[in-house]
Amino acid sequence: MKHTIGLTIALVISVFLVPISPGSTVHAQQVQRQKFRTDTGTVTLGPNQVLRITVGWDLNNDGTFNDNVAVVGIGQIDYVQTSCSVGSLCKHGSPNPNPVFEKDQIPVSQVLSRDLKQMPGSSGLRGVIVSNRSDLRMVFQIINTSTGEVVAIWVPQGSPAVG
Question: Which of 86, 134, 139, 155 is the most exposed place for a label (fewest CB within 10 A)?
Fold first, then answer.
C-alpha cells in the first residue's frame, strides 16, 4: 500500500512539472501563438476617401532585416452613431466588433497594404492590424480617391520615419 501511494505521488508531481519546464512543447506553442495588435482609433472619412494601411519590415540600424517572413492581418470595424446628448456628446456602436482579418505573409522584400472604405450610413471606422511580430512598421494614410492626394498621414511612434 505504501508503495502504491509513493508511486501515485511521484506520478502526480511529474505531471505537474512537465508543462512548466522551459523546453517543453507547451511553452513553444504558446510563443508561436502570441499575437500583437494595434489599431488606428476611430476615423471618420469624407466622400471619395479611403484609409490606407501599409505594413512593412523594420530595418535594424545596420540596414539588415531581422527575420524572413511575417504573418499580418488587416481588418476593419465600422461604427454607427447611437445617441447624442444635449451637449452634443455622441456615442457610437459597432455592428461588427470582431473584424474579419484578411491575412497574408510578407517576406522581407515586400510590404502589405489595404484600403479601407467607410460603409454607407456609418459614422466612422477603425483599422485593426494583427501580426505574429511586434517589430513591424505601419503607416496610416487618408487618401482622396479622386485626386490621389494624401489628405492625412500618421506614422506611429517608433517607426523609422519618426526622428
Answer: 86
